[in-house]
Amino acid sequence: MVTFLFWNLKKKPLEQFVANLAKLHEVDVIMLIESELDPGVLLRVLNDSNGSQYHYSSKSLCRKVQIFTKFSDNFIKPIEEDDRLTIRQLELPGLTKILLAVTHFPSKFNWDSDEQASYCPILVRSISGAESKAGHNRTVLVGDLNMSPFETGVIGAFGLHAVMSRRIAGKRKRIVQKTESQFFYNPMWRLFGNATRGPMGTYYRYSSKPNEYFWYIFDQVLVRPDLLDRFNDDDLELLTSDGTTSFISFDGIPDVNIASDHLPILFKLML
Amino acid sequence: MADLWPNDIGNATQKAPLSILQEQASILGAKTKNLVEAEVRVSSAARVMAADSKNKRVELGATIKLATKTGEELASSLSDKADDISKDYLQLFVYDFLIAAPVLNNYSFRIFTVAYDFRLYPVKFILDKDIQDEIGNVWGTQNILAKSEDELSSILMQIFSSNKVRGIINALLVQSGGSIN
Global pTM? Predict the structure, then answer.
């Protein structure tokens, strides 16, 4: 079992929280965005508080994503990148090889939903290119997509094509307008609303606009069909504390005075 | 039977943006002993992606929208807004430009994407943000457009000379065990 942590740090010095989460959940792969942490500083904190030896991959040319691993960066080499995306080949000895794609998508502050959706095919082409190079489609995409799971860019066949149903994703692909499009399974849908064991999203926004969801799940984990039997929905959770400090305020929303405006995501894969 | 076709069909003098990109891509390898190469990734032709509640449609692969207006409005936007590729426009050709390192597990880094329609020009650039910031003082910080072959060449030269692209090429060269000099 390999454990992954993803967190948008909102450019805050949250290294101690990251280290505490890594220790508490025995995280193998830490993925950070909007991180202004000096990798050296985080490594010192990580390795002090864990008694383990985390590594940082300096081979990546994508500056918007930082990845720290409990193993040598030789086992997680970048294969395809741009300024918002890194796709790594995770090849741990004796375990199934996968592609780990991590992205920070353009935000709604700068782009509207249509513009975000129209950028998705570029992301999809990069993922397909990496899958073609790797020779397999065992890909997990993790990131702050800055889109909800139900938006065009995420659900559309010419976008990420990420659906809420394992059964539908299990069909692997769909042909729309003579174009074959592979599915992702999007397990984030089950994390919406009050009937969940955790918070109602990863990000909260209050506004006086007429249409306001308040809770958003911009931070998502999307799983290709070839990894479905290695991913258990119960092994995905939104974290609200590092074990001692709560990341949410008394009214149940992310407390930006304490941590980030996004909540971290933890998931596991049986590789 | 009368020949109704014009006599100047097939006499195009413009070079297609794709040809220019592919020519430039082929040059980088020669400069780096093929340790670092450039590659043009061809995407499928544009297809309508989806319709949203505002009845707009989003095109595959480009940051460009085709509003589903009336035929008259659309024809007007096609003919009158030749320079305004950022809205109300259909893109047919979309290409990614990558810097690649064959000996580093075929690693590649996408530095920009271009999109254009059947008229070939203007060409819209969807650029790496660092590069856009760097050349933005000349070409604008948003929606960089090449309206002609000359402008395309000029923009490409600035992109290739940018600190970001130089840095990527140097980093890949070093990791590939080579250097330009």
Answer: 0.86
